Amino acid sequence: MSIKGFFSKPLVAGWLGLLAGFQVCVAAEVDFDATAFDSKVKPFLEEYCIGCHNEEKQKGERDFDELVYPILDDEALVDFQDILDLLNLGDMPPENEPQPGDAERQEVIDWMTGAVAHAYDSRIITGGETVLRRLNHREYFHTIGDLFQMNMSMFDPTETFPGERVVEHLDNVGDALVTSGYLLDRYLKAADQIVERALPWEEKPAQQSWKFNGDFVQQPELNKRHMRAHGQRYLNIYEAPNTVRRFGAYAPLIAFEEGVPEGGTYEIRVLAEAVNRRHSFQHEAITNDPNEPMQLRVIPGHRRFGFLHMPQPFEPELGFFDLSDDGPQWYTTRNWLDRGFAPRFNYVNGTMDIRPSFRAVSKMVIENPDPSIPKPDLQEDYMVVAIKHGGVPHIRIHEVQIEGPFYDEWPTASWKAIIGDETFDPKKTRKIIHKFASRAYRRPATLPELNSLMEVVSGRIKKGHSPFEAMKDGLKSALCSPSFLYLEGEVLKADPSRLTDYALASRLSYFLWGTLPDEPLLSLAKQKRLNRSDVLSEQVERMLGDERSDRFVRGFLDSWLTLRDLGDAPPDRNKFEAYYEGGLESAMRKETELYTRHAIDENQNLSCFLDSNYTFVNGPLAELYGLEDVKGLDFQKVALNDPRRGGLLGHASVLTVTANGIDTSPVYRGIWLLENLLGTPPPPPPPDVEPLDPDIRGTKTIRDQLEKHRTVESCRECHRKIDPLGFALENFDPIGGWRSNYDDRAHIDASGKLPDGSGFEDVVDFKKILLDKQFLFNRAITEKMLAYALGRRIEIMDRPTVDGILADLEERGGGFRDLITLVATSDSFSKP
Amino acid sequence: MNRRLFLKSSFATLALPALESVAAKSVGAVKASASGPPMRMVCIGNSFGMYPKDFFPNEAGSNYAMTPLLAPLERHRKDFNIFSHLDHDVKGGHFSVHTFLSGVKMADAKGMPEGNISIDQRAAEHTGAATRFPSLTIGSEDGLHGGCHMCWTRTGVRVPPIEGPRELFRKLFINEGERAKQEAADDLELRGSILDSVLSDAKNLERRLGGQDKDKLDEYLTSVRDVEVSLELDKRWSRVPKPKAQMDEPEDRSLVEDIPVMYELIALALQTDSTRVASFEMAGTGFDTGFFGLSQGYHALSHHGQKPDRIKGLTTIEYYQMEQLSRFLDKLKSLKEPDSNGNLLDSTMVLFGSGMGNGNAHVNIDLPIILAGAGFKTGEHKAYPSSQGKRVPLCNLYLSMLQRFGVETDFFGTSTGTLNGLELA
Fold first, then answer.
1. Is pLDDT larger for residue A366 or for residue B16?
2. In angstroms, rounded to a whole number, what is the distance separating the alpha carbons of residues A623 and A631?
3. CB pairs under 8 A between A and B
4. Among A320-329, A352-361, A565-574, B173-182, whose mean pLDDT is lowest?
5. Distance of alpha carbon A780 from alpha carbon A677, whole angstroms
6. Residue A418, Cβ density class (10 Å: 0-12 exposed, 13-18 middle, ≥19 buried)
7. A550 has pLDDT over 70
8. Buried b (16+ CB within 10 A) or exposed e, A507-522
């Protein structure tokens, strides 16, 4: 029973797992006596294990009553492997129970090692398979961008796709990637959008220019005040983009609501002025830092996504300027704009909440005794007074000019990628379709596939469509074909245990780039050379040097450290204003990405994830960490002199994603650590337990509460493993800032004791213990990366592969880049 | 292979789930029967439940003392029932909120006769092609730990949500112009030939892969079939003009501000018989608490830890939800049923609740459940046994609702029968 639920988890073993695999290999050569199970092993288990792990008690969800030899199935193999691991570690039987003698223990270990190795050998071919895996949304997005050589900064064809299901935080597990009528319906719509967008016209669109001044419209609530204060002469921006009300935070060009007529490069010129930068308001009223230059950002907006003065899904940075203090100046940027998008403007370091401040400011103006300040009309709305006379810092836009579209190349890159020639020749339709399908399917398109696409084309021509339109319909059809939508695990005819070179090229490319294989990979596949381990390693090196591998960094961190959940539980706005003011959400993600990128580039030892003396910060993040001398929004590598911050456990991203925005929970953080860093998730709470209904009033600390919880025996079993890990991080608040006391001033006690007896005082101590147990971490990250690379769960039959990777990794020195290479060249990687 | 042949053969050999049964219906009569107004169903759910102390009355029966969170419904007191101690007996906190309308966890769907189909989709199967939209599912893709995704087909697929009032309005009321109509017809034609083409690819793939991983290919083939069926429906309905809108096209604002507009549109959708089944997921993420002058997020507040200020914040948000529900009931009462004396609420069952019980403890037991309308006897707090072994599954209520809706079935999800004590007026 219980084993069933257990089995689907990544290969785990007790809460402390494991040993390097070379022992398995060595032992396999020893003479093996199958009858010893009944004569030696079973009596041993009965003596030392079955007292707790029987059908009735099932401690740790284990039940060895029925264990028999030979090993009949994978579930039994999990049991054998677990017993072996824990005997090896000396973690079982528990301290307070009778212990076997050393010789007795060793004899059983030797026999079990052989038994397990035999089982792996005999079952190796029926192991986990990834036969047909649908592209997930992330992969679909990148694949389309690369296939069509298209600018995707304002276009996401997956926008309306139904949400994807994740398994153990992985977003690419084949059996969970369901296809439904709803999804196929949207694939059809997306295909239409994509192709029409990639090949919109055969004529180069004419350049136009637009000029906007004197007709500016602010957002509704602000506009009538602005009209009274200074008509339509200016477009003012007051707030930073990330505020509650967004009151004058997004400045749109309402007169250009319809956006640009065609996708292309546009030149955007803004006549902008920094007004009242050096103000003397208190921070509580106006939060702008008077010592920083005002920052103007240009972003696109589209009416389709709702109001232009509100945040929208596509906001790539089109331009970023530090404004001069010398009156209105021209600022120019050239950037891509999709059809229908218009530029909008942000004041990046604007104030946080201007509306209540307006009232205070108008009062100050009215009460100001200085005769040089003109007295406002007392009948006037307070906001008008503040806007007109208040001296509030803001960015003032006087004029905007837009010109375009310009094209660096014509025909466009998309056109060249698909059509090849300058103009479309209907006679070449078959050739175009063939080339496209072979690229889209990531292997030469078969004759029946080509024919079925050509049938669409000829059918459309018969219906009266032009050859060009019909050809495009053929492309659309290819984008809905299972040959495009699914990654195939096609195997070699000669050796069905190995992938074809084309299938291998795709696996590698989706692993490291999240997209289809490029020309070099496909040509190696064509020559059937990719399956050679040295060639594969070379390609890994090449691909990690390409910027597309940043997609691996992001995709893997989302799946490993659950960073995709950042922002799901927004922190308290009053308590953690810095989170919003400093744009910390994206900054903390960036830190972990840069850190991981660095670990790849420098082949850092995996221990860098547990502890280190450096990290990457920008100004706002440095402030959160209490680091001096880092200003501005650019990131830089900094040395950490404070041992508390080093490693992932000091990263604000990890600390925020493991909190709920308002409190920290040692339980939640503890489980997160067990699951993701140590690879030993605790079982779910037993069915009959009263759930924890937190009560944090009064002086009771979370520690007191959990201690009470642990007095229940069925709770204690797991919480003694979970809670201490979480307590080690209690000094970090819900957004990763350091604290010594809780809000009610109760002192924070971050000490704890692990189940194996090792104690720690604080996070610094705790990290030392983690480093001692780095073998656990190494196994966990290896299993996670292998799962991510294969697009499936790790199963018991992957154990020898994982053991092998870990052994090789140790030999090579334990670098992160080495790990990636070892995963890509591992046995499992080239198997279906 | 010819797609139409394929369709025919699959109809002949397969059980007909979801959309297939819709198509089967579409062959038959479209108009509602002459025997009175059609039955309708609206299901509303949130992510974090209702603060139990302010929600459930202390007394059972019809003379219960009003509770703070039910107060906005005071004027409808005689027209709804509130239920306590009903749930699906599942665990998992956020990860089980999605069971609200199905009673079955996604992961357990395979072992159930109807998978984890939700009550609204079960009802929609029954309505079939009688209305333009077999069901309207309104909600959001976002949501903490899977959000409150409530609507599931019998094949275990979440019905993707309509995400904002603008989209819903356009779906309900905007007719394509003449040119757009032609384009749409041409588009349907193109989709048809693409489906032919990809079907043949799928068959080839099956051959090439030697029949491995048949599940995944079957899934793809079923999808082709489902799209095919909905294409047929689209074709039928494209000839029928949409009803005239009685309001201007709304703007999408924020989830909180959009709630009243969504209710308004649901009421209009029912009134115009554009659909008879609607569900409304109020996801926790994106619930902009700044609207209430709160600085803390909805989810954070649900973890109130018994702190009074946080409970106050939480119940402010929940009170707002009850106010909007109350206004929705007002609206349904104000709309006259065509060709009948009654109003819309008389033939509409309105279910409000959540897959989360006590949010602070993250439990999925003792769910907050309200049911109004559709001619059930109402006005009571119906308290069911809370002790182990005597508890009543929430699916019993759902079975009663489905039967009332006209579905001829004697089970739904984890039901053990219809709900004792729930009668028709």
1. A366
2. 9
3. 201
4. B173-182
5. 6
6. buried
7. yes
8. bbbbbbbbbbbbeebb
What the block records as the tokens of B44 is 């509303």
- Residue A290's contacts (CB-CB under 8 Å, 6 or more residues apart) are A277, A278, A279, A280, A393
Check: complex ipTM more than 0.90: no
Residue of B7, B193, B285 best to disrupt the A interface, most CBs of A under 10 A:
B193
Q: Which amino acid is at A662?
A: I
Q: How far is B285 from chain A (nearest CA, A)?
A: 6
Instruction: Give the contacts of B184 (CB within 8 A, at least 6 positions apart).
Output: B176, B238
Q: Which of residues 40-99 of B touch A (CB under 8 A)?
A: 91-92
Using the beta-carbon criterion (under 8 Å), do A697 and B201 form an inter-chain contact? no
Q: Give the residue from A481, A671, A702 with the most B CB atoms within 10 Å of its CB, the best one to mutate.
A: A481
Residue A709 and residue A668: Cα distance in Å, rounded?
15
Please count the other Cβ atoms lying within 10 Å of the Cβ belonging to residue B320: 17
pLDDT per position as a tens digit, A660-709: 888 888 999 999 999 999 998 887 776 666 667 777 665 567 787 777 77
**Residue A372: Cβ-neighbour burial (10 angstroms; 0-12, 13-18, 19+):** exposed
| B176: three-class secondary structure by DSSP | coil
Contact yes or no for A22/A90 (Cβ under 8 A): no
Which residues does chain A have within 8 Å of residue B224's beta carbon, measured at their own beta carbons? Answer: 184
Q: What pLDDT is attached to residue A123?
A: 60
The per-residue pLDDT for B14 is 29
- Which conformational region is residue A392 in: left (phi greater than 0), alpha (psi within -120 to 50 degrees), or beta? beta
Q: Which of B162, B172, B335 is nearest to B249 (CA)?
A: B172
Amino acid at the residue A116 = V
The residue among A147, A138, A163, A400 whose CA lies nearest residue A267 is: A400
Chain B from 261 to 290: CB within 8 A of any A CB = 285, 290
Predicted TM-score (pTM) of the model is 0.86
Q: What is the 3-state secondary structure (H, E, C) of A77-104?
A: HHHHHHHHHHHHHCCCCCCCCCCCCHHH
* DSSP helix, strand, coil percent of chain B (3-state; round to 5): 45, 10, 45
Within 8 A by CB and 6+ apart from A371, the residues are none
